[in-house]
Amino acid sequence: MALIPATKPLKQLMPQEIEVWYIIPAIRRELAKSMIKKGLKQKEVAKILGITEAAVSQYIKQKRAKDVVFTPETMSEIEKSAEAIIKNSSQIISEMQKLLESAKKSRTLCQIHYKYGLNIQNCEACMGGKEVKT
CA angle, 14 as apex, 9 and 19 as ends, to 5°? Predict the structure, then answer.
């Protein structure tokens, strides 16, 4: 997976900021889309995800959290998580944690980090120096 080059020096962002500002909204976007496909109403999706109906609508219309593109593997995990959350909405936190980990392993977090905050190639800050297979 190629990194997206930064166009100018940017503020140093912590990985957790990237997760909160970019990755979590994008995961919610994909969960919402998946839940709608599975027959839930926007109101139900909003309640399950703890967001507004307007946010669900914006996710569906690609007006919010559109900068993040997940790998097919992560998309598959999101589909599975959507099913688990529909069956038991109390699973949302554990499923979200699994999806955040998947975004790290697939280097989606790295792409966003590089694009919006980190201008260093071959960075392993989020991975603790471990080699991650993509």
Answer: 110
How much is the pTM?
Answer: 0.81
Q: Are the CB atoms for 83 and 98 separated by under 8 Å?
A: no
Alpha-carbon span 115 to 134, nearest angstrom: 19
Spans of all domains in the chain:
15-127
Contact by Cβ (8 Å): 124, 13: no
* Digitized pLDDT (tens) for each residue of the chain, 134 residues in all: 444 444 545 567 788 888 999 999 999 999 999 999 999 999 999 999 999 999 999 999 989 888 899 999 999 999 999 999 999 999 999 999 999 999 988 988 888 877 776 555 666 666 654 444 43
